[in-house]
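Exercise: predict the structure of this protein bound to zinc ion.
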Amino acid sequence: MKISLNTDAKSYTSQELVILAAYSVEGKSKLKTKVAELSTKNKELRDAFHEVKALRHFKGERSENGTFTHNGTQFLVMGLGNKKDVTIEHLRRVIAEAYKLAANKVESFSIDLDSFRVKSPEQSVAAIVESLGMTSYVFDKHHSASKKPKLKHIHLDTTAKKVEGKKLNAQIEASMKLVDSITIARDFVNEPPNILNSEVYAKLVETDAKKIPNVKTKVLNKAQMKKEKMDLFLSVNNGSAYEARLVHLTYTPKKVTSKTKHICLVGKGLTFDTGGYSLKPSDSMVNMKFDMAGSATVYGAFRAAALLGADVKITCILGITDNAINSFATTPDSVVKARNGKTVEILNTDAEGRLVLADCLDYASDLKPDAIIDAATLTGACLVALGHEVCALLGNDDKLANNLLKSAQDTNEYMWRLPIIEEFSTDIKSLNADLKNMGSNRFGGTAKAAAFLQEFVQKDIAWAHLDIAGIGDSQGHLPYCPPKGASGLVIRTLVNFLMRQ
Ligand code: BES
Ligand code: ZN
Ligand code: ZN
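Solution:
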């Protein structure tokens, strides 16, 4: 699917279908009932719209849409509600609905950009392109017939002059870099575990990252990780047919000064989580290919920020393995020494993500970054607390946490902070070792997991943990996310955060 901008447009580029906005305004009748106002200066078009009997009750509210035909072209009118209340997120959602109504009907459509202008033209274009890119995602690799829609070309038509078009085209290009990175992340997550094992996954990331300018790649194999004393991480890999991998990527901006910050992203990359000897029940095991969504999320953000030329040094560390069983697999009651020297009693082999992340966080701390942000599908408890809709944020630094919350707000993603209190840190102390890998009961699971991770972040390093167990797994509640599969959410928040450094 191609998206192109047409400036100075005197007529619409697509003769098949045009998407226009209508806003809800107070009617002229005494009752002042709401009526729809088609957002175009073209009077002929407005008259044609008002003449359509079927649209008589159309009020231009956000839940409404309608169609009419004029001079052989179909017009799809999307209600946006009261103009002064429209937000960028409304725009994203309405464009997603419009795309879904149109994509299987025509090979091309035009969007009247002027009609959908909310806030600045650049902000509107960014939201429209993000929405189109995210909504048009299909994972049909493993179907014998393509599931791609008929649509080939989207035209963004505007009366803006060519000079303004330059800025808008730059915005489209930037938004496409973000969208492509979200697509890659979603593809990684959706790929089945029999295809995407740890060795394949690391190779795919490395190959993709090598194409990004100013990025250096390094991949540690099992022997190298052993040398690094990452025994806690490797304990998860014991039962696997595939070697664990640690992917270490570095992006260095073109201009580095003493003020240049260094942010380190860390991701949980469990290509499949059976639970190990603490085996998951069959129903809970389904979809555990998604247990590498944290790594895909931070890679997606790293990739987009690097391509956008972020003014910050970014390291991206992915801890990759599966959690499987054979006779070498770690059993509950095992005690293993972490890279930082702390000993951990493994009471439940299904609490494996924190073991992988623990060694990765210590490895990341050695790089002395200004901040570490990890993302992981870490706890089922996160779903209980915040559902599929909200990302959990925890950490040891208020400034970093507030900055992430601000980015989430800027990009209209939901994020909520949970506390790491001393009692949680006490609850993960073990009788038989320094720590145990789960709390003494199932309550507060997300925060206790974070309390465990905190033990591996070196002193004075600002750290934030994002539990994406809920938000990473799409349930179709957002029109620009697929009904099922990887949501691709949180990447926009992280990119916004990195671009603000
Ligand atoms: N990968 C799971 C967490 C998960 C559960 C993600 C459901 C998405 C959906 C993680 O490795 C896990 O199994 N955690 C356990 C920890 C417990 C044993 C302390 C959990 O949450 O039940
Ligand atoms: Zn698990
Ligand atoms: Zn897991």
